[in-house]
Amino acid sequence: MSNKAKSVSELMNLTPEGRYDYMVEQIKAEKTIWTLQDQDGCVMLTTEDEDCIPMWPSEETAALWAVDEWKECEPLAIPLSEFQERWVSGMEDDDLFIAVFPVQEDLGVVVPPYEVNERLTPKSQAKH
Known about the structure:
Layout: H1 3-12, H2 16-30, E1 32-38, E2 41-42, E3 45-46, E4 51-55, H3 59-63, E5 74-79, H4 80-93, E6 96-100, E7 109-111, H5 113-120
Parallel strand pairs: 4-6
Antiparallel strand pairs: 1-2, 1-5, 3-4, 6-7
Pfam families: DUF2750
Protein name: DUF2750 domain-containing protein
Organism: Shewanella saliphila
């Protein structure tokens, strides 16, 4: 097994909070956040309480979700600047949450977009 495959399987076994922390660090490093899209737009998930857009730290981890009912979906790269300038406010306007780095058996942490944005923004640049 390659190091990359091993690291992905290790990521799948992290706790939801561990995947959240990993995703924040990856987005800071790569300046990109990933979701899935099909011909109708972004994939949406629904919990008992919230409508969510799932987001991942890499194309590879997003693609792992594209099976079964999602097999027609393709990873969509969102530049960090676009996420912060358009997606956060747009998702909040639509009352949408982020499912952070879901894996097949676990939806992961579900948080409002501003919370992810706060974790991605250096404290000195925070607008509060």
